[in-house]
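hey so i finally got around to running the thing on that chain from the lab meeting. sorry it took forever, my laptop kept dying and i had to restart like 3 times. anyway pasting the input first so we r on the same page abt which one it is
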Amino acid sequence: MLTHDHKRKHFAMKVSLIGLFGGFFGGLLGIGGSFLVIPFLIAVFGLSPHKSHATALPVAFASGVAALGFYFSSGQVNVTISFQVMIGCLTGVIAGTHLMKYVKGQMLSFLFGLFLLSLAGLYMFPVSPLDPFVSTGELYTMIMAVVLGLIAGLSSGLFGAGGGTILVPGTVILLQVSEHMGQGISLLAIIPTTILGTWLQYKQDNLALHIVPLLTSTAFIGGLAGGYMAILTHGTILRILIVVALLYIGVQNTIKNYPWRKKVPSGQVSKAN
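ok and heres what got predicted. didnt touch it at all, straight out
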């Protein structure tokens, strides 16, 4: 039988591995990594969907902070567009966080799965500028950046993830930036968005505070490694990795939480904390 110290070590190891995993791929792919962490928080620690989605938010913050330096050093961050995206993100995350309160746990996971599958479909098509529909004008760029940020912020607030998976393809397709530049813009915009989102979730008592500190610190370490690898990896490979992750987690969430599936008996419901 495990002693108390052994249980604590096992707990810390599990949290650390999840944080390193989410942080590494968040920094590598420029998408924050929160959506990769959510299924593990539910399966390994028995968190409710609401708590897992909220607790995953700091992973995106940590991996973004850690990886951003590598993108800056290689000139892959457009600060002007990033700040325009932030305006929309900060507005959207407030609305999304309040909206989460009105969505039931199983439905939240189901909608999250559909959301990831739709993003996977977007990524699977060749990501190239839509020349007949886009413009390089400053006004167009500003409006599209704010709109993309608003949608990404809504996703981050409602699902605790997904902002980066919207911003990267969105900036590449609609703002005609490179894959790596889109990732750099995404990471910079995600940082203040996740800070605000985490604070709002804390006020609603949705954060698993016994997990967040270690999860965040290990995600930062993972983000350093992921950011370094991102600059050395071809954009096509990064896109394929994102598609695989989106499809796998999207299918899992959709099948397991299909609204018309037989409900789990109340005695078998996962713990909510």
